Amino acid sequence: MGPLNRRRDRDPQPPLSFTTAPRTLLPSTVEGGGPEVGGVPVDGTADTGGGLMEPMSRWRERLQQRTLAPLLHTTRRYKVWVAFLLAVLVWAGYAYSQQLRHGLVVTAMRDRISWGLYISLFVFFIGISHAGTLISAILRASHARWRAPVTRMAEFITAVALVTGASFVVIDMGRPDRVFNVYLFGRWQSPIMWDVMAVTTYLTASVLYLYTPMIPDLAFFRNQLAGKVGRIRQWFYEAAALNWVGNEGQKKALARGIAVLMVIIIPIAVSVHTVVSWVFGMTLRVGWNTSIFGVLFVAGAIFSGVATLVIVMAILRKVYHWEEYITEKHFRYLGYLLGAFAAIMIYVNIAEFMTAGFKLEEGETFAFRQLFLEKFSHLFVFYLVAGLVVPVILMLYRRTRTIAGVVTAAVLVDVAMFIERYVIVVTGLRVPLMPYEPANYFPSWVEWSILAGGLAFFSLVITIAVKVFPMLAVWEMVEARETEVGEDLGHQLVQTHSVDFEKPDGSTGLAGSTP
Amino acid sequence: MMTTIRSRSVCRGLMTLVVAAMILVGARTAWAGQIAVSVGAPGSAAVGSTVQVQATVTSDGVPVAGAMVSLSYRTSLGGVSGPVELDRAVTDANGFAALFYEQRAANNGEMRVDYVGPEEGVTAGATFTIAVQPGGVQQYRSVSGVAIPWLNATVVIGLITLLWSVIAFSAFQLVLIGRRGLAASGDEMPRGTRLSGDQGSAWIGTALATAALITATGMVIVFSRSPLTHGNLGDAEGYTRTPVDYLDSEYDFAGYGMEIPGVTDTADPVNNGAALWVRIGCVACHGPRATGGVIGPNVSDVESLTDFSEDVRQGPGVMPAFEASILTDEQLAQIHAWLEAGAPPYHHP
Hints:
The structure holds 2 protein chains of 2 kinds. Chain A is mainly α. Chain A is built from 22 helices and no strands.
C-alpha cells in the first residue's frame, strides 16, 4: 500500500488521505476514548517531541485534540479580549452613525483631497487578503509540505480581510444606500466597476477555497463534538460537513474542487490588486500615473499579507499552544518570503522613482518634494527604512532569523505598508492640478474610530473563527506527516495506511481511486 | 436700356464663340467647353446623420471625368463669415462624384459644390440648401481612441464568463460531495450525529454553489448591459444621459468681464438686460437668445412684466427663485425689456 500511495503523489491531483473517515476515528475517540486520547493534555505542557518513531495514530490523536481544544475550553482572557473588541466596534458604530447623520462632512475629506483613511484601509485590507492565496494556493500547487499547518489560517485571513476591505468602500460613500446602483447602472469602462468585479470574484473564489479543503476537518468536528456541544453547533457542523464520510466519490470531488480552485485563484488574486492599483493609475494624477503601479500593488499586497499571516500565526500559536505544529521553521520560511518581497519592493520603488524623477515632468517636482523633503517625508522615509530595508537586514543574519526576529519584521512591514497606502492615496490627490494652494488632510476622529472598528472587526472574526472552525488543517497535516514518515520508515506506513483506507466491506479504498 | 444690354450680351456671346472656335481649332483642347456643375441633394437631413451630396460635372453637356469638386457651407464665427469645406471628391467616367458630410450643426445656411480642378481659372459651381430636421438633439458618441478590432467587449465578457464557469464548476463539487455522502449507507455515520434523519444535510453546499452561480450570472449581466460607448455590447436605451443640445443661435462675443459693474450700467436698458441675462445665469438654462436650452424652456415670447416678475421671484418648477438681493426690480425690468426687444446681442457702449 505504501508505494501505491506514494505513486499518487505524482498524479496531477494533489495527494489526499482522509484520516477523518469515521471508520478509523470514531470507535476509539467518541465512544469512551482510549488511554491515549484521555491522556493527552491540552495545555501545551505535554511532550511535544514525538519524533518520527512515534506511532502515527498517536501523533494524529494528539493533533486532533489540539485542534479541538479551542472549542472546548474558553478562558477568562478570551472573554475579556472579545469584550474589548466589541467595545471598540460599538464606538466605531457610534462614529459611523454620526457620519450617516451628518454626512461625509464629519470626515476630513473635502473636494480636493476626497479619498483618505477609508480608501487607504480598503487598499490595505485587500492587500493582506493576499496571504491566503500565496501561502495556500502557490504552496499547495507546488506540493510544499511545510505549508500544511498554516494554510487554514492564511485562507481565513483572506476571506475576513476581503470582507473588511470591501466594506470600507461602502463606508467611504456619502450615500451608502446607492451602492446597488453599481450593479444596476454599472458600466464596464469604469475602473471602479473593474474593482467591484475583481473583488466579488476573489471573494467568491476564496470563500470556496477556504471551505472546500475544510470539509473533512468539519466532518471530524461533527463526529468528535457529537453530544459534547449544544444542538445548534451540532446542527451547524452536521450541515457544514456535507455528509462527509470520506468515500471515493467524495474524495474525487474534493480533490477536483481544490485542484481547480488553487489554480484559478492565483490569477484572480493577482488581478484583484492590479485592478485596485488601476483605480488610481487610470486617473490623470501625477503620482499615480505610472505603469508599474500594478506590480507595486501586487508585490506590496503579498508582502503585507505574509506579514499579517506571521502575526496571526504567532498569536494563535502562543494562545493555543500549537508550538509542535507551527515551528520556528515556518516562521523562518515565511521570513525568507518577507525578505524576498522586501527586496522586490525596494526594486519596484527604485524603478518607479528613477523613471519619474529623471524626467521630472510637470507636477512631479511637487510630488517628489512632498514625499522626500516636506509634509510626508517622515512617513515615507519610515516606510522605506523600517518597512523595506530593516526586514531585509533582519532576514540576512541567522541571529535575527528567529521567531522574534520574523515577528518584529512582520509588525514593521504591516505598519509600513499601511503608511505606504495612506501616503499613496493622500499625496496623489494633494498635487495641485491647477494653480491653487495644495489642500491638506488629516483624518478626523470619526475616521480614526472607524479605522479602529475595522481592525477590531478583523480581529473579532478571526478570534471567533478559532472557536468555531478547525484552524489547523488536520488532514493535510496528517498527509504531510505520513509522507515525511514514509520517506524514512516505509514499512510503518504500510501498516498505517492499510488501516486508514479499509472500507466497511474490507476492501481498500485506495484501489478505487487509482486511475 | 434692356436692348443695349441684350445686344451687348449677344455681342459678348458671339465673341466668346469666336474665341472658343479659334481655341478649338488652334489648341485642340477638350476643355474648351463651358464647365457646369449640377447638384443632387436631399431636401433635409437629421442631426447626426451622414448626408450624401451628388455632383455632376459637364462640359457643354458632355460628362467630365477626373474633375475635382469640393463641398462647402457658409458660416460665420466671431463676426468672420466664409465657406467651410466639408468634403472633396473626383468625378468618375459619367462625370459623377459623391460627397459626404456629417450633419452636426442645427442650421446649414447656403451650401455649395465647386469645381476645383484640374483646369485652372475656371469657376463653376452650384448652390443649394439642405434644411435641418427639427428636434436636432443627439447623443454624443466619442470617436477618439484606437479601435483594435479583436480587442473588444466580447473578449472581456468571454473571459469573465470563462472564469466564472470555472468557479461555478468548483462550487458544484460541493454539491457532489454532499450528494455522494447521502448515497452512502447510514451506518457509516456514528450514532447521535444525525439530527435530521437519514436524509443527511447538504444544503450548505447547494446554497454556496447556488450563490456562486447567481453571482456569476449577475456579473456577466452587469458587464453585458453596460451602455453603448467605445464598442460596448448593449445599446444606450434605458440609461439616462445628458444629451448635447445644438443651440440654433449665434452669440457674439461680448468681451470679458460680465462682472464689471459698468457692463450693466449702460444708457440702454435693453443692452443692460442682455448683460444681466448672462451675469445672473438665465443663459445657462434658457440659452443665449432665450429660445430655450437643455433644461429651460423657450421664453423669448415674453409675458407681461407683472407675470414675468412673479415667475422670476418665485421660480416655477425646477427654476430657482431669484430674490431682490440677487436681482433688483430695476434689473428685472431691464431683462424684461431685452426679451421684449427680441433678445438682441449685447453691444459694448
